[in-house]
Amino acid sequence: MVLVVNDAERKPGQGRDTDKPSSGFRPKHGQRFWLRFGGHETPLKRGRYLIGRGKNCHLRLESELVSREHATVTVLDDRLVLEDLGSRNGICVDGQRVDGSIEITGAATIGVADVHIPVTLRSDVGGQQPTQTDLRAVRIERKVDDYDDDVTLRASSFELLGQVVEKALALGRTDEAEHLLTGHLAMFLTEAESGISQKPKIRTSAARHAVSLARATGKAAWVDYCFKLYLAANAVVPPEIVDELYHAVRKAPAVDRPLLRKYLLEMKAQTANLTPNDRFALQRLDGLIRLTGHL
Question: Is the per-residue pLDDT at 103 higher than 90?
């Protein structure tokens, strides 16, 4: 994803005497709101900022889930006003969905569909005021290491994406669903293979979506993805995912059987440390190998 920040346009009178009265919170001298994204911070001057995918937006977010004109942020002396513009996937503040608009008077994380942008309130360095060049167009590549540091927000984003994908699959838009998921699933696998800790809930959700893609597309690579993910995480595939895999391999039978055998051998080597549910799941996977040999 890419974030582009352009200087906010101000209409005559906007952001001056015509602003609404203060909510009671007054920032200390030299403090202001800053936008933090991709390891960078940008000061926000008074004015109204349009957020979305459109080229006319001041904050342009290149995500399939963000509308062309998604929301606005109005920066006043003592607060921000975040307003949804009737977008399909909505906005949130600190993980809580917002209907309409909301005032923000301190540090918070603004959610725009699946993109989460921290806003901080701090003193300007050396008491200097931000200049015109501070809000020149800035392109920031969003890297894997920058992807939603807050794991709770990541889970929320992926859950939202999953709802969109399910609708796409239900409407037969398989290519769209696969396009939406591919980058996210690849990232989760990269994290697991790099030894980055993941919550089991996110891993299970990723595996479930991969299985859904296998059934919809007939591509065995999505079945293989599940075993690569759990092999990298050194974890047992949950029984509920194993049940779904039985249905998936009938639609996508050309699975990587050596990969599945390798996974089973490594998991069975840890039998003494496994729970009854884990051992049951491995027994079911033994049956899955036999099934793939007859398809």
Answer: yes
Pairing state between β 47-52 and 59-61: parallel
pLDDT greater than 60 at residue 145: no
Phi, psi angles (nearest 5°) of residue 8:
-70, 140
Sheet containing 2-5: give its strands across. 101-104, 80-84, 71-75, 47-52, 59-61, 2-5, 138-141
Q: Are 103 and 20 in contact (CB under 8 A)?
A: no
Average pLDDT, the chain: 78
Query: Quick one: which H or E segment has residue 177?
Result: helix 174-193
CA distances from 146 to 160, 198, 281 (A): 19, 15, 35
Residue 249 CA to residue 255 CA, distance in Å, equals 7
Residues 114 and 88: beta-carbon distance below 8 Å: no
Residue 206 identity (one-letter amino acid): A
Q: Which residues pair with 84 in a beta bridge?
A: 71
pLDDT score, position 4: 55
Question: How far is residue 62 from each of residues 44, 52, 57, 115, measured CA to CA in Å?
Answer: 20, 8, 11, 9
